Amino acid sequence: MNPRLNIVTLGVANLARSRQFYQDAFGWKPAQGSSEEIVFFYHGGIVLGLYPLESLAEDAGITAHRSGFSGITLAMNTKTKEDLETTYQNALDAGAKSLIEPRDTFWGGYDCYFADPDGHPWEIAWALSWEYDEQGSLIMEE
Predict the structure, then answer these.
(1) How confident is the model at residue 29 (pLDDT cuts 50, 70, 90)?
(2) In this predicted structure, what is the pLDDT of residue 71?
(3) Distances from the Cα of 99 to the Cαs of 65, 95, 116, in angstroms?
(4) What is the structure's pLDDT at 98?
(5) CB 115 within 8 A of CB 131
(6) pLDDT-derived band of residue 20, with 50, 70 and 90 as boundaries?
(7) Mind giving me the DSSP string for the chain?
(8) Cα distance between residue 38 and residue 56, in whole Å
(9) Crossing angle, helix 15-26 and helix 81-93, to 10 degrees?
(10) Residue 135 pLDDT
């Protein structure tokens, strides 16, 4: 058995608005299986799902009430600092809220944070030493 992380699903207040945000900000196209009730964005081995918050909470058997930091951030990595800045600006132009503007990091990279329309925090990061496969996925040794 080899359990893998395959899908990350975000609970959203307005599915149509969130779908449009991710399409406008990053050019992501809804994948097979997407509908008016759920949206999937395929990223070569991992899927980002969008689903109505109340329905997702009910499905998981927990309350939909959210307050403060959930302890989870999502991240995307870029091949250059310039790509990071462009991606960050695209997110802001599409309706994201800036949390941390692009900056040099203590670990020798460059990053920033934004919140999507539902407040989910995203980091965009770059590091000179990172390598990517042909699909654009970050290569990390086990």
Answers:
(1) very high
(2) 87
(3) 22, 13, 10
(4) 98
(5) no
(6) very high
(7) ------EEEEEES-HHHHHHHHHHHH---PPTT--SS-EEEE-SS-EEEEEEHHHHHHHHTS-----S--S--EEEE-SSHHHHHHHHHHHHHTT-EEEEEEEE-TTSSEEEEEE-TT--EEEEEE-TT-EE-TTSPEE---
(8) 10
(9) 150
(10) 82
Taking the C-alpha atoms of residue 12 and residue 119, their distance in angstroms, rounded to an integer, is 9
For the chain, domains (ranges, CATH) are: 1-59 (3.10.180.10), 72-134 (3.10.180.10)
Average pLDDT of span 26-32: 97
Residue 113: Cβ within 10 Å count = 20
pTM of the complete model beyond 0.85 = yes
